[in-house]
Specification:
The structure is a homotetramer of 343-residue chains. Chain A is built from 11 helices and 14 strands. Chain A is α/β, with parallel strands linked by helices.
Chain lengths: 343, 343, 343, 343
């Protein structure tokens, strides 16, 4: 950590800061930066976590040199993590996982039909929302516990693990009992009480990026789960707030590259919520694959006209099957060894 | 609601949509828009809430003409709402309320000292966080229940009502028992389960704007609380995500004017979290007053060097007292009648 | 065009608007929208361009149903445009073009060396800046006319057409004489006088997206060039302003899909300026290819340590050659017919 | 300047960087930062401007400690600058200047009528666009030279100095001959060739903030003008790109406070373009005054229904007169001494 002083800061200003740092058990080294004093703070910086060095007299800025997350960072683990969801492996660097299904669970028949279709097309995890966070209190908010049970039923009938969103710490237990992976949605990425609860559950977690979150914020949200001892975290980029109404959100595919540079955690992409337009889902899913994502999560609905949620962004099972074929080709050409092994 | 068809849409496309609309009990009127068919849908549009008209064949876009919130809107109530917090009135159009206190409750002594200082300077509500949502899991996250009890104690000792943040539905009851107003922070504006719970509590709520929320999103979040029968909602603008690191967030003061044009709810401003820099708090508080806000919420700390949270944006009690004087002058010149009544 | 009236608008309000519309030679049709009057305006809407219907009494909003650009839109041309740059074809849907070279032309030797290297690796157009817009007035701003001449020389020596940025209407002539394609940079996308001038020149234009531009703004900027009779426009996405400092800009790859849905113009991607980090250039170039872009423009420098501009984002010739190989594979798998023809 | 090395950087990495720095004539000091080497570079850093230290092997990041602008910064001048426009003074800290007039000059009669009205209401500078940058090439783009002449005529008839936008280096001379102040619009803030030209002219300049510019970018744009020897620069905040369609742009009033903390230049606010809605102009103008701005620029039109540009955001002369009265009251209460002197 470096503390940069203002040009006019006094020796007394520096002495006070140095005293506070040493009182916390750290050491200091001073260096001159063209007329500004700079104090490098070394030692166990954790001891200074709650000491606001930036409000000391004469201080211009405090520069932290280390990342604020530790378990999520590459320094913690050199190879890339693999997370097991049911009997499916996600991540590791040479797999590309397809998660697909309806935005919301609406009826058992439709869910079952969609589950069969996406599995046949190559999806290895079924998605479906039972608890739906909706911008309006008057919109359909999901079937709740009954939706979770339908997911479990469909999972068994078709033989595919499931992921579903949890929005309330009080529902974690019911979700854990019924689905194979818990999804934290974009609106709850900073719902830290919920993160702690899913951390404690030890269940696999898909952590979507908050619409207003930097990659660093996102990795710190992952750290909330990891620091409870639950290392089964898969990140999912789904677009941030943008100013162009042409798409629902602004898909930040460079975030995939940034995550791969900074973290060992698997990272997927949700092109459906990112764009909000069915016609843009396939090109963005292909782009995610080429950018190095570990998979995509795509909304698929058998009867779009009957969908009660986000119909405009859902693919038909036929379009999804075609996309899945494209993704196999792309992944094969980028990871020829992995592709050979798969056949 | 208007359904605009693509130039090449067929009569059959229109007939199918019209049939679906009529099946739901609504009527239609067709009009020509320079070669594009336009169907106006009239009647009780609620019956169509879960019918995704935008995915019907031939449809280019669906234009909604009414605001998606009803209880929060001006149409619901012509005059401006007043919310009672303890024995303090907030809102109504001719009051300007000062809420002040530390970011987090850290010790009873400091809290009490700050409470006395801010009350003496003219604050009528004391703020203080017991449950602190922090970006890092390793940062100080508040004293929890013990902090709530300190707030109750300080409130009684000084004679000032209190507001504190609630972040978990499971804590609502404890917060209701100990503080006079529940704050929903920016990270939880879209935590709809929590909104429903504070709505059910019937307790006054300060609803901060989400960092990624439009004013419409924000009013819909308010609608979650209102639709539970709890009309005691005060909005609080605190800045959205911006691209300039010069300030912590981007304070959107025009949102105050937008809220006043669309809603009857009181709207306050938090210049401390908006800017993150103590030197910018006073100018932005004055600007909020001149923009027509119903009050400001300001972080004040007796000993900034000891603050365990957001020290860089806290004012000293002396600076707060000076700001409070400025705000009285400004409000007096803008609302001379209200000012005369106050003396 | 639809004019939506406020619920309380009077018959007199409607009559005044209708009279103004008819005076301009257009017709009107009225329809009821659940208690709000709606007037559809049909006929030659151009005659109403300068009549601000939205300020008429009683008007709530004016909804335009057609895109504001016409030459840039898909309606103007069903197939995808091809733009010839020197003897190289760009666009059309089944080609993938590599543009590469240094950020700025610094010396003839380095330029020549880089030109040879990028051509050998598969680039078909050489980039290099002679007039550099730099945020600071004290930074290196390019060699100007001398840089243009070096580009012409290198182009002849190596046999590769060139593209270079023009920033001032007074330099258009010199640029046209020396390079094969004019680049309009992000900062000048809305420099309409410059757009008109490059439109008049008839020379091929690469139009980068403004950092604050929606796709609609961007297509309207293209329309400035097209409306001068110059149809040789290639769009280039290079990232918009984002809030995450992890990358220099926020690359909006969905914009490639949006452009392909709305326009016939070729669209390329510049992953170098988008990310600002050499390590992220290759994944984003691959993603651009998979998203359906017509090519990428990549910064390549033989001696990064000597680069006077944007060194941190430049690839070495070796890294570029590897990327070019990946892109050939990806494009081949996505466009097998085109790839077969190329060999 | 501080160069921070990666944890694994070698002594050889450091030696190479140190050698390059010393070759440029600067000195170095090394310090340890918890296992990472840090090299402080001191001396005349200008000599290193074109040496990209961040691409040297082993370097993690380069931290600059000084602001990149010098003439625009507070260090250059302790008191606040005053800029003379005609016989009107702008800036200095205790004046509040009203600039008002139509968006575009449309006819001499309307201009004259508006000029008289705004002067009577207290405006001291008349605005009016002759060269209008418009998003669409088909929109009204101003009367050009004829509009400039109308401004000169109206200025003489009414006795009020004028400001008008210049968009092309080739028009600077004509603008200088006809108006008292040159405006650089938001779209041209980074049109550096134009900035250099208005810098050379020595004429007063109103420099609007780019819609995608940080305050630092904006002060660097000012530096382009200042570095030509023209110190007559007035900044004008007019909103940045935001994601909420409720207002046209996102007015960043905290930027006024940031500019006052970093620069001696006067800073005004344009609430008309910032909000795009007439009803929000007055509250934002009052907020700008309370935030410490040196003035506001407001669009006023005598006959809004006939305005050919931005009618929805123009105030009537009556509304402007009322606003001007409010602003006098507000400024008087914030700067009592200045107000006393004015009467």
């Amino acid at each position: 950590m470096l503390v940069v002083f203002k040009p006019g800061a006094s020796a007394d200003d520096r002495a006070k800061l140095v005293a506070a740092v040493r009182a916390a058990g750290c050491q200091t080294r001073e260096v001159d930066g063209n007329g500004r004093a700079i104090v490098a703070v070394v030692g166990d910086l954790e001891t200074l976590r709650d000491t606001p060095l930036d409000v000391f007299a004469g201080v211009a800025s405090v520069i932290r040199l280390t990342k604020p997350y530790s378990l999520a960072g590459k320094e913690f683990r050199a190879d890339r993590s693999v997370v097991r969801v049911g009997d499916v492996m996600v991540g590791g660097g040479d797999r590309f996982t397809l998660v697909a299904g309806p935005c919301a669970v609406e009826s058992y028949e439709t869910l079952l039909e969609t589950a069969r279709a996406v599995k046949a097309a190559g999806a290895s995890i079924l998605r479906g929302g039972a608890y739906k966070p909706r911008t309006s209190p008057y919109a359909f908010r999901g079937l709740g516990l009954e939706g979770l049970r339908m997911l479990r039923e469909a999972s068994r009938a078709v033989g595919i693990p499931t992921v579903s969103e949890v929005t309330d710490p009080r529902h974690v237990e019911a979700c854990v009992s019924n689905v194979d992976m818990l999804q934290i949605g974009t609106r709850n990425m900073s719902n830290f009480d919920l993160l702690v609860e899913v951390g404690k559950s030890g269940h696999p977690v898909m952590l979507k990026r908050g619409r207003d979150a930097t990659v660093e914020d996102w990795l710190l949200a992952a750290e909330y789960v990891l620091s409870q001892g639950n290392m089964k975290v898969v990140l999912c980029e789904r677009g941030v707030r943008g100013f162009d109404p042409a798409t629902r959100n602004l898909l930040d595919l460079a975030a995939v590259a940034v995550v791969r540079a900074r973290s060992h955690l698997p990272v997927m992409v949700d092109p459906s919520h990112a764009t909000g337009v069915a016609a843009y889902v396939a090109p963005m899913a292909r782009a995610a694959c080429a950018a190095g994502a570990d998979g995509v999560m795509v909304e698929v609905h058998c009867r779009r006209e009957e969908a009660r949620c986000d119909a405009a962004q859902a693919l038909s099972p036929e379009d999804f099957a075609e996309l899945a074929g494209d993704l196999r080709l792309l992944h094969g050409v980028l990871h020829p060894a992995a592709a050979a092994k798969a056949h």
